[in-house]
């Protein structure tokens, strides 16, 4: 699971905590540059969520990257 949002965003932090409680492989990033995933071959699904104030451009960049690379 990938959670996108500002490091100081309480909304995004809460999303991360919820996701992490359900999925051990949860990553908290601010931008695509922060995304350093090395997923095992057994991963078939990658979820993406974002804080309310996360710009759409950043969300779309991460979505496009995940679609191409996984």
Distance between the termini: 13 Å
Overall strand count: 3
CATH A-level architecture? 3-Layer(aba) Sandwich
Give the count of structural domains: 1
Can you describe what's shown?
The two termini are 13 Å apart. The chain has one domain (2-69): 4-hydroxy-3-methylbut-2-enyl diphosphate reductase, catalytic domain (Cobalt-precorrin-4 Transmethylase, domain 1, 3-Layer(aba) Sandwich). It has helices at 10-22, 56-69, and strands at 2-4, 27-29, 48-50. The protein has 2 helices and 3 strands. The chain has a 3-stranded parallel β-sheet with strand order 2-1-3, with helices on both faces. The relative contact order is 0.28. It is globular. The protein is of the alpha/beta class.
Q: How would you briefly describe this protein structure?
A:
This protein is α/β, with parallel strands linked by helices and 70 residues long. The protein has helices at residues 10-22, 56-69; strands at residues 2-4, 27-29, 48-50. Helix 1 (10-22) links the parallel strand 1 and strand 2.
Task: Furnish the topology, listing elements before pairings.
Elements: E1 2-4, H1 10-22, E2 27-29, E3 48-50, H2 56-69
Parallel strand pairs: 1-2, 1-3
